[in-house]
């Protein structure tokens, strides 16, 4: 417990390399700044270690990270490092990253194109319909965009692996994962049933 508190403090002291200062609040505000068009960034050496799980082939449970916004990637790494977003593998990875590593990784992965993934064949169209209805009720597109490709602090969620999506929604609901954007996802996920989560994950995963 002591260790965790200490780590959370050190993460709160972590600052963006931009003009804003003052820890996590500034970090969260920075996440709402409109995105710059992606520019190719040089791969930092530390990025090699990520590709075995987040490269062209994904390790089990690992989502694609290429093409997410710089701010989103940096935030998630800070959350993992602080133990606020719980995942044994990524907490272990992030523990070894410096602030400079995190900046370079955010910049690099954000500069890569979004993977051109074909959605898997939809073998459960009824579940897709249920997911679409749940997305309408909970106004998911209002933040993630009509095509679910992400808007500002809200990341792309279309065509992510179904199991990852379901886990992510469950993690927000159980507070195993914090949310940026004024706790947006913690509030949204709190209102979701297990059936909603199952249907939403399917709907987003098979999105054409
Ligand atoms: C051994 C496999 C493995 C390695 C190596 C690894 N990751 Fe991960 N990563 C995962 C898994 C599994 C998750 C999903 C965690 C969860 O469910 O919350 C993840 C999640 C993430 C996320 C959150 C993505 C999202 O959509 O919210 C980011 C960002 C990330 N990793 C970045 C990195 C970076 C940068 C590196 C290299 C420094 C790296 N990872 C190395 C397995 C790995
Ligand atoms: C009020 C705005 C808002 C609404 C409404 C919203 N989201 Fe989000 N969503 C966000 C933000 C901001 C994040 C990034 C949070 C973070 O830092 O982890 C996010 C993250 C996510 C993620 C994590 C993606 C990843 O790569 O790990 C998923 C999945 C997701 N949202 C799905 C949904 C679904 C499904 C709905 C509707 C039930 C929804 N969202 C409604 C703002 C919103």
Overview of the molecule:
The protein has helices at 2-12, 23-30, 48-54, 70-81, 88-95, 99-111, 125-137, 140-144, 162-173, 180-190, 194-205. With 208 residues, the chain is mainly α. The protein folds into two domains: 2-111, Cytochrome Bc1 Complex, Chain D, domain 2, CATH 1.10.760.10; 125-205, Cytochrome Bc1 Complex, Chain D, domain 2, CATH 1.10.760.10. Helix 4 (70-81) packs across helix 5, helix 7 crosses helix 11 and helix 9 (162-173) packs antiparallel against helix 11 (194-205). One heme C is lined by residues 63, 75, 135, 138-140, 142-144, 153-155, 157, 160, 165, 168-169, 179-181, 184-185, 188, 200.
Report the helical percentage: 40-55%
Determine the number of helices (DSSP H or I, runs of at least 4 residues): 11
First-residue to last-residue Cα separation: 44 Å
The succession of helices and strands, N to C, reads HHHHHHHHHHH
Domain count: the total is 2
Sheet with the most strands? none
Q: In percent, how much strand structure appears in the residues?
A: under 5%
Derived from helix and strand composition plus strand pairing, the structural class reads mainly alpha
CATH class category name of the largest domain: Mainly Alpha
Uncertain stretches of 5 or more adjacent residues: 1-35
Count of individual beta strands: 0
> Which cofactor or ligand species appear?
heme C
The CATH topology of the largest domain comes to Cytochrome Bc1 Complex, Chain D, domain 2
What is the CATH H-level superfamily of the largest domain? Cytochrome c-like domain
Shape call = globular
Second CATH tier, the architecture of the largest domain: Orthogonal Bundle
Radius of gyration, in Å, reads 17 Å
